[in-house]
Structure formats: structure tokens, C-alpha cells
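Re: the pair you flagged

First of the two:
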Amino acid sequence: MMPIKTVSCLFPALLLILTILSECAGQSGLGWWDIWQYDGLQGPQYWGKSHSAWLMCSEGKLQSPIDLSAERLLYDPDLQRFEVEAPLRTSGVIQNTGRRVVFSLDRSTPVVRIYSGPLNYRYNLHEIELKFGDDDSHGSEHTVNGKAFPVEVQLTFYNERYGSYDKAEESVQGLVKLGIFVLPWNETSRGLSKLTAIDVVKDIVYRGDEVNVTNFNVKQLLPRTFEYLTYEGSLTIPGCFETVTWIIMNKPLRISRYQLNSLRELVRDYKDDETFRPFQNTFRPLQPLGRRAIRTNVAKRVEDPEFDKACPKSRRQIKYKVNTTP
């Protein structure tokens, strides 16, 4: 058994490390935003203890990501399909930030919007992020019945009534995040290939690298389905604001093995650094669902007028199971 005096020695050491981080941030001009990570003493378990503005990361009750358990799904007959408005061609920059692989739209690009479905307002696209792991057993932030996917694409939108992402992220019904799982396949889905093409990924190997992406049709990134799951949650990065309506598509995209392996070769460090850490496993651990509802519009298709008449959708009790085929 570990002696009590040994435990008492660990606490001052932790305070010392946090103090050093704070002093280094101040001396170098870095803010708290610049020092968080996905592992070590700057990892998710310490986000809520590192900065008062991030307290929600440790004390919030509506945190994300979550496990999408089939047993917890609730069929909502009032959930309609959501709509996405997007020009045929958009342009922007995809960047390796050292913690995130993220695509940001050019300001001159026409607005991409999402509305309807579970949403009461219209939301403008802010960015698209790729989450992935170092092997196929993990990578996505959300899981389905405890199973993770190698990749999760997340499109982040902000409520246009707030005028900007910065104002919306801390405001009620401020954000929408559209999550799409990705599976390895023989080829890559058309929309996703614009972000994961080899000639794109090879130019963002190191932290700070970025490359222009043009002629990108955002709507091609969406799977061909109107089925989705939705719940109220949070950002999965500091400060974990509980202002997000999550929409998870009920159909995955596909990525070629070659492109997936290329993503796994990215590094978290600058090109001139002495050592390189792999850019992998950039996902927050699962958070408790609590009493939240996970609603869905997924319903069994019954082509039987007599059944529909005897049991309308509003009265059906639907049970779900995980489909093991993509």
C-alpha cells in the first residue's frame, strides 16, 4: 500500500508544474489556449483545473462526446430532415495546428448554412475538423454501443443571430456540430477526398503547415441519408461550453486505406523541432450521458397501409440495434 506521506508529496509537485506552465505562458506571450493538449498534464482530465474559463470541462453536466447507445435512443416523429445550403464551389485553408486538422472557409466564400430538423435558427459554417486515431480501433470522439470509428468528420456551425463564432460559442443555442463517421474502404467518398487527398495531406505534415483547398462542394461531404441522431451537448475542446446541438449522421463516409495512413503520418511539432510526435488520437474521452435524451428520426419503413392505420408513427415504440454492415 502506498504510504500517505507519498501522496502528500505529489500535490506540491503538481502545483509546481501548473505554476511553471502559467509562468511560461505569460513570458512567451502564449495564452491558455496555446498550451492545452490531448495527453499528459495538459490533457482533458486537467482542462477544467487549468483555467477558470474552462471550469465547465470538469463540472458540466451536458458534456460531449458521448456513447450513442442503441438502448438510449428515442424515436421522435416530429424530427424533420435538416437542410444545408451551400454554393457549388467553396474555398478555404486546411491547417495542421499541432492539435487539430481543420479546414476554415475563406471570408470571401459564400455562406454555407444549416437549418430545420432539430434546429430553431439558421447556422453558418465556421470550420470542418478531422478527428482520427493511430489505428482502426479508435479515432472518433463519439462511439456507437461502445464502438469507435477510425475517423470522425465534424462540421461546426454558429447561430447567425450572434454575428460571429466567438459570440455564439458561449451563448444559448449558439452552435451546431454535425458529426459524420468514416470507415476504411477501397476508395474515398467524393467530398471527403478534397480534404484528405495525398497532395493536400503531404503539405500539412508539420505543425503550422497549411494549404489552400479550392472548388470544394461542402454538400458532397454529407452522406446520402436523411437519418440522424441528435442531442444537446458541448464543445469537445476547452472551454467545453454547453451550447452545442449535436447532429450525428446515420450513415458513414468512406476513406481509402492509403489516405487514412497518410493522415496518421502527420506530426504535432514544427518542421525545425528536434523530435516529432505523431499527430494521432486527438479526441476527448467519452462523457456521461446523464439524463439527456438522444433523439432520432430513424424509423422502420413499413409499406403496409393497414399497419400505418392501426399504429401511426406517433404511437410506435421502436427499439434499435447496431447495424454491423456499412
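Second of the two:
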Amino acid sequence: MTLTLRQPRDRSRTTTALGWIARTAATVALLAAAFTGTTAGAAVAAAPAAAPAAALTAAIPAADSSSSAMAAGAPAAAAAPAAAASVGGWTCPGVAVPPGYVITMFDIRGCNGYGAWFQQPVRDGIWTCGGSPIVPGYVLTNFDTKGCSGVGAWFHQLVRNGIWTCPYSPIPAGYRSTTYDARGCSGLGAWLTVRV
């Protein structure tokens, strides 16, 4: 008798690729909403700040329009839940970030698999997800490629004389960039920002 064993499949590449695609799509939707000021995606009522990300998916009813649209074979864009305004808490892609708020967390499982973003008020010394708005008066001072569940994270600080800033950081009025250090900002390069 010959015994044949199935070889286990390495799904890590597939899982990694799908996660990257979902994070990229969510980031693009977030940037589109930030630049256009629209709510082109989906939203979920803000969950309590202490609620875990898993609670977000539970907040969406099973018999919503997205479930019935998917069952009917509608395209994915039409299957997204309806957009709604939100101030802070967990939101779906495409929801505009309110003034004075930043995005600090990402949950790839949220919003029926579209991904969910956590919005909270900005403060000095906060890590934010890539694509989060930069509140006036703040600059980017560090970068973490693995932060925000792999999306990438930027460290926001209030501008002050002698602070090192990363690429893509705004330079507020009354300041200018001077010296460059290629090692700064986790290897992206940094500029010394000083008062004019």
C-alpha cells in the first residue's frame, strides 16, 4: 500500500500580497478623500476609543446593503457600505478626516474587509499612518516602515527652532530648512529647520 501525503502549501506570499494590496487600496482611498474633501468610500459610526478593532466589524449589520449587493453580483465599489461623516474613532476608507484630527491605526479586517482607520485629535509627539493629514503647525520628524500595521507611520511634532524634519514635511511660515543629513528620518534624509 502506497501512502501519499499532501505537501502543505506556503500561503505566506499570498497572504502578504493580499494584505499589501488591501493596505495600498485603503491608503489611496484615504488620500483621495483628503485631497478632494469628499466621502467617496464607506463609513461606520465611531466606536468608543477604547474599543478593539474587532468591534468595528461587529458594528456592521450582516444584512446591510453591501451583503445583498455582493450576493447580487454587484461590483465591489457598489458593495461598499454607504458613507457617513464621523468625528474620531474607527472609520472606513474614503471618510474625510476632520480638521485637527490624524489617523493613528489601521485594521485590515475592518469595514467588511475594506480596512478601517482610527482617527484621533492631533497632539505633539504622535505617530500617524501614511496618508494621514498633517495638521498646520506640525512637522514630520521620523518614519517607521512597519508602523500602522505595515502602511508606514510618520512621527508628528510641533514645529520649533532646531528640529530635524523628514521629506514631505511642510515647512511652516517663519521657518526654513538648512543643513541636510542623509541618515536622518530613518534613512530617508532630514533637514534642520530653523526660524527665519
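The beta strands are 89-91, 101-107, 116-121, 126-129, 138-144, 153-158, 163-165, 175-181, 190-195.

-B.
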